[in-house]
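User: Can you predict the 3D structure of Metallophosphoesterase? Sequence below.
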Amino acid sequence: MKLLFLGDLLGRAGRDAAIKAIPELREKLKLDFVAVNAENASHGFGLGPDMADALFKAGADVITLGNHAWDRREIIPYIAQEKRLIRPLNYPPGTPGQGSALVTLADGRKVLVAQAMGRLFMDPLNCPFMTMDELLTRHRLGNSLHAIILDIHAEASSEKMAFGHAFDGRVSAVVGTHTHIPTADHQIFPRGTAYCTDLGMCGDYDSVIGMSKDAAVARFIRKMPGERLTPAEGQATVCGAFIETGEDGLATRIEPVRLGGRLRATLPEV
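Assistant: Sure. Here are the predicted structure tokens for Metallophosphoesterase:
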């Protein structure tokens, strides 16, 4: 199976670039499945229902969120109805929406996507390791489940890597989101799980993690509140990872995907 996971969409630049790129990448990479993190798609903070609809229409199969899940309040009734939009699994019981999505493809194959949020330098949610372990006792790679992808939305690279090793051999891939900077550690762990610490963002890299650089730099220098951070609006780079799995659902390949904008382009050969 050939899968693509795109990192955090940042503002209009990242959103528009991803919507344009998804159909092209589905064709070029012969993709079976596409997931996207879109928690920053609405002016850098949250996701609007119309934006989610546009991403699904473009060809996204699942959308994940993160710590900005609730910044657009109108997403709350939407996520209660749309099962392909997920928020972190380790939010407390009773939180709207769900932390995983099981998608059946046109050919009958099934893909599970789940997201957890880290706790280092983040909100003190339920334990991401224990919560995800409980989910995976109910969903296992095998004849009826062809791929499992975990999105670990976390600040600390150590926590992300520990999360990847904790589930090595039980899932197809563990990919990190949230920090908006693509890491170069794409690898397959010893038991067959593909891993990358951070997919990077889909957004303008002439910025500070996607936000206009002058206001962001001023905040660091002056240590005082300033103008509201707004997304950079230059040409965006689409960033993510291409993952290929074997018959057992474990990974045989993971490679970076970068398209457009300031970063050096790279696309896997298929």
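Residues 132 and 253 are 23 Å apart (CA to CA). The chain is about 25% helix and 25% strand.
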